[in-house]
Design a protein that fits this description.
Number of strands: 6
Strand order of the largest sheet: 1-2-6-5-4-3
CATH topology: TATA-Binding Protein
Distance between the termini: 66 Å
Number of helices: 4
Number of domains: 1
Length: 143
């Protein structure tokens, strides 16, 4: 019986490896986030990416208000340039900053059903995404 289970497991591994799914080559972390401003006292819950961007999601024990305050203070110092600060319809606070021209979006929400907050860090390659970055930036007069 153990040999049968092992053979089934190996067959699943082989089929999974040959599934034909295209592997996406995500950008290097240093290209989209040369400085990664990790939320304090947090844990990584997901990492997703495309060929042009990366996004990391963290859960923090600190409240949304505390995390927003922490990031606003952090982004007032070099190497950051604070570009915009907006509230989404769902209550999320979205900060857009640049580090030597490289864009970074920080989305901070209340964690549903638990204390703390969820922090998403999203970075994109600037060579291909400059038009997208400009289109997503909140104009200075709307802050």
């Amino acid at each position: 019986m153990n040999a049968r289970i092992l053979n089934s497991f190996l067959a699943v591994l082989v089929l999974g490896a040959c599934s034909g799914e295209k592997k996406i080559d995500t950008p290097q972390l240093a290209d989209v986030m040369p400085v990664v401003p990790l939320p304090p006292d947090s844990r990584l819950v997901s990492r997703v990416g495309s060929d042009e961007a990366l996004q990391f999601t963290f859960l923090s024990r600190y409240s949304q208000e505390s995390m927003v305050s922490t990031y606003r203070k952090m982004f007032t110092a070099a190497p950051w340039t604070f570009i915009s600060d907006a509230e989404a319809p769902d209550g999320a606070i979205i900060l857009y900053v640049e580090n030597d021209g490289i864009p970074l979006w920080v989305r901070i929400t209340r964690t549903s059903g638990a204390p703390g907050s969820t922090v998403q860090l999203s970075g994109a390659l600037i060579s291909r995404d400059r038009v997208l970055v400009d289109s997503l930036t909140v104009p200075a007069d709307s802050q």
